[in-house]
Specification:
It is built from 9 helices and 12 strands. With 315 residues, the protein is α+β, with helices and mostly antiparallel strands. It starts with a helix and ends in a 17-residue tail after the last strand. The relative contact order is 0.16. The chain binds adenosine-5'-diphosphate (ADP) and magnesium ion (MG). Adenosine-5'-diphosphate binds next to α1, β4 and β5.
Length: 315
Amino acid sequence: MASNEFEIIQRYFYPSGGVRRPDVILGIGDDAALTRVPSDRELVTATDMLVAGVHFDASWPAQDIGHRALAVNLSDLAAMGAEPAWCMLTLSLPENDDAWLAGFSRGFLDLAACFGVQLIGGDLARGPLVMSVAVFGLIPAGRALTRAGARAGDAIYVTGDLGDAAGALALNEKDARGQAHALTTRLRRPQPRLREGLQLRELASSAIDISDGLLADLEHILEASAVGASIYAACLPLSHALTELYSLEQAQQFALTGGDDYELCFTSPDPDLHRQGRLPFKISRLGMIEAKRGLRCLDRSGETLRFERQGYRHF
Ligand code: ADP
Ligand code: MG
């Protein structure tokens, strides 16, 4: 067993096979890290904290927890259209558990390697199971995708499928059917849409990642852009797994109000981005940005649908 925090960092967070970027002058091991930002780029930073019992369950496989801790952070960079570069990890652990640390660091560092992200530092303490990750990315100056650029007439799109993570949370504990596994994977191992975000930088007028639920997160775009919108429930992209396990109405409810999917919601003046062959990844067009404020969700006949809770609130 690693006997102290220096050994833990050496063994689990600074493995010899890890990502080594040429723009890192000094990584883990000194009082602070030193990195180089090209003069024509802006530095994009984001941080997200994960608390056991709030954002994940401590009984999950450690590898999934490690993956998710970094994935939800990289998702914020994706929503800005940034290229990810570095990350930092602050970890509070109840005990020095080798198997847990091995799994956690593998989940975290494998995802980092997928996107060429180098872990350049962090902190470690004994305490409740909490992790805080900071991510740093680069973007050509003035090109970031923000929440504030949506204009009346823009189309509203979303990547991938929605509602799977909420469907996973609502599963019966013992449900081991194949479809249940597919949903659980979406909850525990979200895929940050970084490649998608990079391509959307040229096409989208605004973007956000869906962490709190489509309605709640689209509201943020509407507020920041001072516009309104109508979306159509029938256009929501629902996975086969979700519609096999739940009624259409329940699946739509998950897609609209359930969080944790980490897909990107974005707007664009181009109304045809969802046409076959335009983009090398799945997107769906959900509706339109309108000058009239407020968010309307309509059924097939144009009736307004009402939904209970819009997004997770901590306080
Ligand atoms: P200090 O006493 O100056 O805070 P630490 O002992 O906390 O230094 O950290 C020593 C080095 O290890 C620093 O470079 C720090 O960034 C890095 N480090 C600490 N914890 C982690 C971690 N969980 N993951 C990655 N690097 C870490
Ligand atoms: Mg420290």
